[in-house]
Specification:
- This protein folds into two domains: about 375 residues, no CATH class; about 270 residues.
- The longest helix has about 35 residues.
- It starts with a strand and ends with a helix.
- The strands form four sheets. Strands 3-4-6-5-7-8-10 form a seven-stranded mixed sheet.
- Strand 12 and strand 13 form a beta hairpin.
- Helix 2 runs parallel beside helix 16.
- The chain contains 26 helices and 13 strands.
- The protein is an alpha/beta fold and about 700 residues long.
- One of its GO terms (cellular component) is membrane.
- Keywords: Acyltransferase, Membrane, Transferase, Transmembrane, Transmembrane helix.
- It comes from Geodermatophilus normandii.
Length: about 700
């Protein structure tokens, strides 16, 4: 595919060959060294990835413009083939090795996440998946993916694939209008406009939702645009010797300090990301104009050049090596010896795969025809993509089988705690459910419900409330379940009880927010604090408007570790408002919370579920219920649900052959189904229905 452009005498003349810029390879070395160093030692954001984005833009657009200037043609297929030939072979190898090692190291409960991230990475949409997880409360407990580093590569590839097509289309328009000689100023104007728009969007979206903006392509596009503008406007500019020294050394030192000064993980990619971007620009503009004391003398040293040539391989390898080491060692951060081992192994893998895969595969593919290169590149991705797709399909089948097994007598679940023969573990010869490979997705829902979203304008943010409804309006009773994810767990049994007893059930749920007059979980300054406050401000009005017979909310809050169960005063204040409106309220005692991730604990000790239990006295403080009985507003009662999860001594991880927890504190939907008969017994006694 090509776009023919009319040539002028100037474009027919053969331009001088572009001089090599070894200092840019040195800048790559510094950037990747900072990325690895900060990831392994502090976990902070270094700004190195922003440098890579700037350099991608620096080489991309001018390369296409030069092709247009020399030949009058823009061949997007050739540009795409060249880019993918350089990036994909090594990326596919890293993904394949990571998948194999993950199957050995990562607990089975994390396998579906690994499969999903593999699919996203091999299709260069990992940043899109991470954006989804950033805004999805259900994914908030996901551990770091060993292929998460592909987010920045995904951003670059998406841009590197789109820009050649856009430039080709622009070239065709200029050719049709006879404006070929104006290509350069038009290109500069277009890149400037896109860069400015992206920067404005980056600032706005970072302020609104920094976690989602961090991984998104559009808020990052301006960083590539800055690199492109530097190449288009300043490529031939060389500052004076003293200015070059100031720019070069100042840019390099400021880049090294960036990660220590800025909290990029919580402020990028807004205007704060201009720090590493401008540092990269300063070094690129300084080039080799600083003379014998210029920064290029450092950046062109043989060891720095060696690292710069292998920067791509080191960037790809260091992250899975680090994450898989942490998983295997059950650590949150590496020890000193572990950090040295991670860095050393990453360097070895980068050196070996650069020489055996990256260089030979890239050179061979780029030397061939673009169509053949693209076919070869696609073939590289097939094994990883097929593995991810087949694994995902298998996990889906396991989830479907689990849904069919919940009525099996071999899986009594919570009912086993109420029997004369209490069974808190598994059943011999029968695997407990849900399987570890699907337990992370066993979230609750209100089956057969319809939902509507109400948005009211408040200052500083609107109040957005989603209300879901199950059952007809002429039902015998109307129940509203309201609160955070711990209240949402009860949607499963309440949905079943609604169908069984002719109740209409409503849900008003928001992650991290409860029926309360103050925040019980999300602290001021955290993401979503203002949105949660706005949601709470209108919550009682929404509930009263539904005219319910009963409101069900979280009644106490448990905590992992030494902290004891409490009755938050904000709960009581909100209940008072409903009591004043003549609405009855039942507060459900919170379920246990563990200090460790329970599914991972069970993966490590599958035949000894007692290793993953917690003592009842470490979770519950019975005096809380006794004290609350004297202070509760009229029409408000607390339902002690501790017997649904615990014996008199312990709170097990497996009850009646059903796994209780999907992480450290959320109960599986499968287990909550088995709670239904116990809840029905107690609820009907309290309500008299």
């Amino acid at each position: 595919m090509s776009v023919q452009i009319q040539q002028t005498p100037a474009t027919r003349s053969r331009p001088a060959r572009r001089a090599r810029r070894p200092e840019i390879d040195g800048l790559r070395a510094v950037a990747v060294a900072l990325v690895v160093l900060y990831h392994v030692t502090t976990g902070r954001v270094s700004g190195g990835v922003d440098v890579f984005l700037v350099l991608s833009g620096f080489f991309l657009v001018p390369t296409l413009a030069g092709q247009f200037r020399r030949t009058g043609r823009v061949r997007p297929l050739a540009a795409v083939a060249r880019t993918l030939s350089r990036l994909v072979p090594l990326a596919a190898l890293v993904l394949a090795v990571t998948a194999v090692v993950s199957a050995w190291v990562v607990p089975m409960s994390r396998w579906p996440e690994i499969a999903a991230h593999l699919l996203s990475s091999v299709t260069f949409t990992e940043n899109v998946r991470l954006v989804h997880e950033a805004v999805d409360y259900n994914a908030s407990n996901a551990a770091a993916s060993p292929v998460q580093q592909f987010w920045s590569l995904s951003v670059q590839v998406q841009v590197l694939l789109a820009v050649p097509l856009v430039v080709a289309a622009g070239g065709a328009v200029l050719h049709r209008l006879g404006l070929g000689p104006l290509a350069r100023p038009v290109l500069i104007a277009a890149v400037s406009a896109v860069t400015a728009a992206s920067l404005a969007w980056s600032v706005a979206s970072t302020a609104e939702d920094q976690q989602a903006a961090y991984f998104s392509t559009l808020p990052r596009l301006w960083e590539l645009g800055v690199g492109a503008l530097v190449a288009l406007v300043l490529a031939g500019v060389r500052p004076g010797r003293w200015l070059a020294r100031l720019l070069g050394w100042g840019g390099l030192l400021a880049l090294v300090a960036c990660g220590a000064v800025l909290d990029g993980a919580h402020t990028f990619p807004g205007w704060q990301a201009s720090w590493p971007v401008l540092c990269a620009v300063a070094v690129v503009v300084a080039a080799d104009a600083g003379g014998r004391f210029g920064v290029h003398r450092l950046l062109t040293l043989p060891p720095v050049q060696w690292l710069g040539a292998r920067s791509y391989a080191l960037y790809l390898w260091h992250w899975p090596v680090l994450v898989l080491y942490l998983v295997h060692s059950e650590r949150e951060s590496p020890s000193a010896a572990g950090a040295v081992a991670v860095v050393g192994l990453s360097f070895v893998l980068a050196a070996v795969t650069h020489g055996l895969v990256e260089r030979p595969a890239g050179d061979r593919l780029r030397a061939g025809r673009p169509a053949a290169a693209l076919l070869a590149v696609a073939a590289c991705t097939v094994p990883v993509g097929a593995t991810g797709a087949l694994a995902t399909a298998w996990f889906d089948r396991q989830a479907a089988r689990t849904a069919q097994m919940v009525e099996d007598p071999a899986y009594p679940g919570a009912v086993a705690l109420a029997g004369s023969d209490v069974r808190t573990g598994g059943v011999t010869g029968v695997d407990p459910i849900p399987p570890a490979t699907v337990i992370r997705d066993d979230w609750p829902s209100l089956p057969g419900s319809t939902c509507a979203t109400d948005e009211e304008v408040l200052d500083p943010v609107p109040a957005v409330t989603e209300i879901c409804r199950q059952g007809p309006d002429d039902s015998a009773h109307r129940v509203v379940v309201v609160g955070d994810s711990h209240a949402a767990e009860w949607l499963v049994p309440f949905g079943l009880l609604g169908e069984r007893n002719d109740w209409q059930v409503f849900s008003i749920v928001r992650g991290g927010c409860n029926l309360s007059t103050e925040s019980e979980f999300i602290q001021e300054g955290w993401p979503d604090f203002a949105e949660c406050a706005a949601w709470r401000a209108r919550l009682v009005d929404h509930i009263v408007a539904l005219r319910p017979d009963l409101v069900v909310s979280l009644g106490t809050r448990t905590a992992p570790g030494p902290e004891k169960e409490v009755l938050p005063p904000g709960f009581v204040a909100a209940w008072q408002q409903l009591s004043d409106a003549g609405i009855r309220v039942i507060g459900l005692r919170d379920n246990p919370r563990h200090e460790q991730d329970v599914p991972e604990c069970l993966d490590r000790a599958p035949d000894d579920s007692t290793a993953c239990t917690v003592a009842r006295t470490d979770v519950y403080a019975d005096e809380v219920l006794e004290e609350a009985a004297e202070t509760l507003p009229p029409g408000v009662e607390l339902l002690d649900t501790s017997s649904y999860f615990c014996t008199d001594v312990v709170c097990p991880a497996v009850v009646g052959n059903v796994r209780v927890y999907m992480d450290s504190h959320h109960v599986t939907s499968t287990y909550m189904r088995t709670v239904t008969p116990l809840l029905e017994r107690d609820l009907l006694r309290m309500t008299g229905w």
